[in-house]
Specification:
Main location: membrane
Family: Belongs to the acyltransferase 3 family.
Structural class: mainly alpha
Mean pLDDT: 93
Number of domains: 1
GO biological process, one term: enterobacterial common antigen biosynthetic process
Helix content: over 70%
Largest sheet: none
Strand content: under 5%
Distance between the termini: 20 Å
Keywords: Acyltransferase, Cell membrane, Membrane, Transferase, Transmembrane, Transmembrane helix
Subcellular location: Cell membrane
């Protein structure tokens, strides 16, 4: 049975991802107010996606459809890699870089994922390891929790280090090992061990409040740190200590109330398509609005308008072109 609440929250989180990539990460508005979102609440989006994937992967293994699952994910990755090939043009335009260096950067981008597509290679690697370790994950939940906690903390510390050295190479920590495994395994743990859900029943509201407070405090601390660091390449944290806690609590709340519908039953399709396609739509919308603004002589908030247009266009496409979009996701 489908959980409508999970799909609805995925859609909401997909919109937050569009907002961050559209304008929030570069907005000059009060950094600390925005930081609560960009270094806090909104950073629970991708962990939530991984948790959902891990939870559903338990059923995939149980139904013996892992080959079908992997072939589908790989096909989706190939499709979107081709669509986002235009993003690789920036590599070809790098000055003072040899042909071999450019070829290396293109291959690395395809392996680690162009733009937001890093999620898919991370998902494939994580699911494969989960398949190999499934019995250990199910039978040794405490050891698994310690293991994934170490991985996530290592990822956060690497993220912190890359802010200090002002490096754009986020693939060193934002990957299947440090990001995907911890969150995916949490979802798989919840699906394979009923006692986890039973242990938190009656405590979820208190845990949600606590996780929101921790997220707010941590987001302010990271915002101050990034502002003081003077980093040019990194303007927010991809990984935070509180994100796994908040995303897990939200997921457990979704399991408790599975019937909340946000978009007439199209939440799952729309959220997935929005995550994969939003950079493409943002680029196109920004370009159109830029030329319209230049032609008319009217100054408009380009990035903000492009973000709104992107969300509306994607939702509209999902209503009118469901069959086509299903082939893409």
């Amino acid at each position: 049975m489908k959980n409508k609440t999970i799909d609805s929250l995925k859609l909401i989180f997909a919109v937050t991802v569009v907002a961050m990539h559209g304008f929030l990460l570069e907005s000059q508005y009060n950094r600390y107010i925005l930081g609560i979102l960009t270094n806090g609440l909104f950073r629970s989006a991708v962990p939530f996606f991984f948790i959902v994937s891990g939870y559903l992967f338990f059923k995939t293994i149980k139904n013996n459809t892992t080959k079908k699952w992997f072939s589908h994910i790989i096909k989706v990755y190939l499709i979107w890699s081709i669509i986002y090939a235009y993003k690789l043009l920036a590599i070809l335009q790098i000055e003072n870089a040899s042909i071999l260096r450019k070829v290396y950067l293109i291959i690395r981008a395809e392996i680690t994922g162009t733009a937001q597509l890093w999620f898919i290679p991370a998902l494939i690697i994580t699911a494969f390891l989960c398949l190999l370790l499934r019995n250990s994950i199910k039978c040794k939940p405490k050891i698994t929790l310690v293991f994934i906690s170490i991985l996530w903390i290592t990822g956060v510390l690497l993220n912190w280090r890359f802010v200090i050295i002002d490096s754009p190479n986020s693939f060193f920590y934002r990957n299947g090992l440090f990001y995907g495994i911890p969150m995916f395994f949490i979802g798989y743990l919840i699906a394979s061990n009923d006692f986890i859900i039973a242990a938190v029943q009656g405590k979820l509201k208190a845990l949600l409040l606590l996780s929101l407070i921790l997220s707010a405090y941590e987001s302010l601390a990271w915002t101050k740190f990034i502002n003081d660091s003077g980093s040019h390449f990194i303007n927010s944290m991809d990984m935070t200590f509180s994100a796994p806690f908040l995303s897990t609590v939200l997921f457990l709340l979704c399991l408790r109330r599975p019937g909340i519908i946000a978009l007439s039953g199209l939440e799952r399709l729309t959220s997935t398509f929005m995550y994969y396609s939003h950079i493409l739509f943002l680029d196109a919308a920004y370009l159109v609005l830029y030329y319209c603004s230049s032609w008319s002589g009217v100054n408009i908030p380009l990035k903000e308008m492009a973000t709104v247009a992107t969300v509306l266009l994607i939702i509209t496409c999902c209503f009118f072109f469901q069959k086509t979009i299903k082939r893409l996701v």
